[in-house]
Design brief:
binds zinc ion, HIT family, subunit A, binds guanosine-5'-monophosphate, 5-stranded antiparallel sheet, globular, 19% helix
Length: 114
């Protein structure tokens, strides 16, 4: 989708710090990091939010979970720990309507999140 910023990042029309890429997903560093490591993992296909995930594309979520440890390792936080966050809808604070998981780490995380 040409007016979606994350589609444009995945297409490399907008530059980003790429962490991982394959045919299905793209991972890049968040522009406003909330932790020493803050990387976003997105499907290359445009899916606005988890609420819009087609039943026949749930493989994408499985693929993101399968690759998250490798992406955490690439950022040096696989052993120290990390949090995987998926914001969905207004109350969650979702700002960008292209499904994305945040990988956060490099410091102690707090619970519950604010
Ligand atoms: P949300 O609040 O939708 O879950 O998270 C959106 C995230 O995307 C935010 O953490 C924000 O900093 C990040 N973000 C927004 N625009 C850009 C951008 O142009 N480049 C990068 N690398 N990150 C972005
Ligand atoms: Zn998109």
């Amino acid at each position: 989708m040409s007016d979606c910023i994350f589609c444009r990042i995945a297409a490399k029309e907008i530059p980003s710090k790429v962490v991982y890429e394959d045919d299905v997903i793209f991972a890049f560093d968040d522009i406003r990091p909330q932790a020493p490591v803050h990387t976003l993992i997105i499907p290359k296909a445009h899916i606005a939010s988890l609420n819009d995930m087609p039943d026949d594309r749930t493989d994408v979520i499985g693929h993101i979970f399968a690759k998250a440890p490798e992406i955490a390792a690439a950022k040096g936080i696989k052993a120290t720990g990390y949090r995987l966050v998926l914001n969905t809808g207004p109350d969650s604070g979702q700002d960008v309507f292209h499904v994305h998981f945040h990988i956060l780490g490099g410091r102690k995380m707090h619970w519950p999140p604010g």
